[in-house]
Amino acid sequence: MPLTPRQQEVIRFIASYQVDNGHSPSYEEIARGLNLASIATVHKHISSLEKKAYVRRSPNQSRSIEVAPKFLQEERRARPTRPLEVPLLGSIAAGVPVVAFEEKATLSFGDFVGNKTTYALRVRGSSMIDDHICDGDMILVEKVETARDGDTVVALVEGTETTLKRYYREPGDMIRLQPANSSMSPIRVPAQDVEIQGRLLAVLRKY
């Protein structure tokens, strides 16, 4: 049988009290902690929890209540798990911009995923090689719409092409998308032709 809301309050109070104090609460402490009317009310709830196998107790001892493994197992199952995968949306140019496309796949980044705005891309090209971002690397990106000078960003250029570059604002309302490769020239375009789609969070390389 499922627990009633009051029974859930009682067992969670007992579990929390044991963690904080190193021993079980007395019936009087449970009554005070949960604003219950009487010790008899506490006894009734404890008896119900014992019948449902959520607690164990020894007779004639005021601090003998123990939370049973059944409750701890159910709490672990109910605890939300941290997402371990992010969408793999396609490839990103690190050389000449290419037309963006979407792949139906996911990439696991359990240690880095913080929210649903995080996604992954596969790098193509070598224009970011001096920042140790190589062709074939996977990058983890936080979806944002603005950037600061020096940020490594995913930029949509002229509405159709995406590229990974360092972002800089220049006079005349121009944007410089700077490669990290001394043999390549930067991309300079009007600010109105650049849409920031994300900021680099991490790089993953598989050997």
Largest sheet, if any?
A: 10 strands, mixed
C-alpha Rg (nearest Å): 29 Å
Instruction: Report the CATH C-level class of the largest domain.
Output: Mainly Beta
Secondary-structure element string = HHHEEHEEEEEEEEEE
Number of strands: 12
CATH superfamily (homologous) name of the largest domain: Umud Fragment, subunit A
Indicate the low-confidence ranges by residue numbers.
none
Estimate the mean pLDDT confidence.
Answer: 82
Helix proportion: 10-25%
Number of helices: 4
What share of residues are in beta strands?
Answer: 25-35%
Give the termini distance in whole angstroms.
53 Å
Short description:
The protein has 207 residues and is an alpha+beta fold. The protein contains 4 helices and 12 strands.
Key descriptive features of the protein:
rod-shaped; single chain; alpha+beta; Umud Fragment, subunit A; 207 residues; 4 helices; 10-stranded mixed β-sheet; Arc Repressor Mutant, subunit A; 32% strand; two-stranded antiparallel sheet; 12 strands
